[in-house]
Amino acid sequence: MLPGPTNVPDRVAQAMLKPIINHRSEGFHSLLKPIIAKAKVVFETQADIAVLTCSGTGGVETAVMNVVRPGDDVLVPVFGEFSQRLADSIDQVGGHAIRVAAPIGDAPSPDLLEDAARKAPRLKAVFVVYNDTSPGTTYRWMKEASDVAKAHGAFCISDAVSILGGDELPQDKWGIDMVVTASQKCLAAPPGLALVSISEPLKKYVISNPPLSTYFNLAKYVEFNQKSETPFTPALPLFYALDEALSLVVEEGMDKRVARHRITAQAFYDSLSFVGLHPFVKEHVRSNVVVSVRYPEGMDDKAFRSTVEDSFGVVLAGGFGELKGKIFRIGNMGEVQRWHVLTTLNAIGGAMAAVGHVVDTGEMIKVAQERLRPLSG
Amino acid sequence: MLPGPTNVPDRVAQAMLKPIINHRSEGFHSLLKPIIAKAKVVFETQADIAVLTCSGTGGVETAVMNVVRPGDDVLVPVFGEFSQRLADSIDQVGGHAIRVAAPIGDAPSPDLLEDAARKAPRLKAVFVVYNDTSPGTTYRWMKEASDVAKAHGAFCISDAVSILGGDELPQDKWGIDMVVTASQKCLAAPPGLALVSISEPLKKYVISNPPLSTYFNLAKYVEFNQKSETPFTPALPLFYALDEALSLVVEEGMDKRVARHRITAQAFYDSLSFVGLHPFVKEHVRSNVVVSVRYPEGMDDKAFRSTVEDSFGVVLAGGFGELKGKIFRIGNMGEVQRWHVLTTLNAIGGAMAAVGHVVDTGEMIKVAQERLRPLSG
Q1: What pLDDT score was predicted for residue A55?
Q2: CB contact under 8 A, A190 and B20
């Protein structure tokens, strides 16, 4: 139950065994074409989508490299480790990241973004980490951030690496120019691919302002997309797997899928709170895909997490940076179903007891079952 | 029989089905450690080796980005499409590529490199495409190129994307600072991973001169290698497959593997020449991993290659750029065995006849069988 890479359904894994074909052939065209068509359904966009062989970090770097030029002002809400890193990477390519920060466990309101935008003379983009997995916080004003960008003639970019497919992000409806995600989080495919969408206005910019990197040059991906090819040799088995994983998402339907994540997240938050294991993040910005929980006073992170893994077979993540030892995190991503929630809660209860902090597991499960009622199976 | 991606042995493909594990866990450590140990055997080096989730082009870009800084002189032997592109990519990052060219089908001698090096005041590196797949030419003076680099206080880099594991390239013995390869060529793993080795002197440079790119920053890979991790989420199924593919190489032994490629290449060259289908490349720089053959006068490339594929089930590559329509190319890579050669030759004979150019297939096969005698099976 890590916050990615997530478990890969058997049907997705088996797809990797399809034959190695020439990526300049009709066979590959008829693989990439439906991948992009289905990705557009998931992104809720008409925009073009590039599929790159690299990690999510590579995808975010692609966004930074293609959009930010030396001297550009870029507004970044900072509310966790990953949004901090994003701001740093903007500075690294010569951009000027304007950090609008909030205390950890909360997120900066869009009013603060608007204030900062007014003071930024060369605002190129508003770049938002939609879900920062380090505290487990979702930026709930993605649409408002996009409005701020538009009002100031800037692009709006959403780093949705850890969340797309697990919560709502209607790109076109919200007016977002670029959404970045990765295969191994809420899409439940194996790691190794990044997907980057590019709106028409941003496409024009990208084509006439190529970055230093050839591999991350989106203009090339856009160009090759026209013939359903990638500019560089694709990681073919991962494309087969992504194709299958996207089919699963489309078959379930985005609305149902987002609702499922909401229900399982609520089941975690409510049941754990009920027995005194409190969510770390403020309610209005809590993530539905990464559930972070404060440790009870004095509990040893390592002892708890190794017990929950070794004795109960559930892998949980610890805290990151300043949150190390203070929280544990549950990935609530991808194929997570009713039984994942109940098994995980039961394991947490068992491990807590084993390390000397008894919680009422029965009551916890009861609350969760109540919340999970809308889900079948 | 394409010059990559090559066929993947079943044992390698099946390895991709192993479970998705946390890449920050002991389980991943005990996967990456033997991968790097076996890669060192294949590279014949004590140098550190980074494994990146990207294509071979990404690997070469990594080399360029980590070594070349604006204003640096870099010597590049140019003898085909890929060496030309390499020179262009050096210019693109602000370097100054000094192109030492030869007519297509030949390669520039090391004397010419030495002359050019003498005139280059800020020589940072000699960067050689060891095997340019577009004409099917191998730079047979890789060692001499390295000597030129050393004599001028420069690094020697070898782009061995299409050849490592199929011909000799003893990195340490030849004094090469960096070798770049990819998973899907002579290593016969699926596409999606690049391997980049870094000598101790180059490592020092790389650590103190980070590139603009974070994803391609080799200092990070070197740092994470110490704990047997990758800095960014690895394409796990491809790592499982690479592990298996490297085991196959090590089990066969590099000497035997290189000898096998030599024998199968010689069988192709000699048998095809015997019936008047002449190699395109001059004998002294012919590749053992990409066999390029001149078309007989008037033969239609598309008709021939579609016949050989549709009627005889063998996929061949055409020519590239200025060689389009003039040559066809056979990938002689990875798991190529006696029967691949004979089946391919038979298919070529059949297809030639079908498009109106009759060759003596029987004689061709006889010559090949003779050359293939040292191989069992």
Answers
A1: 98
A2: yes
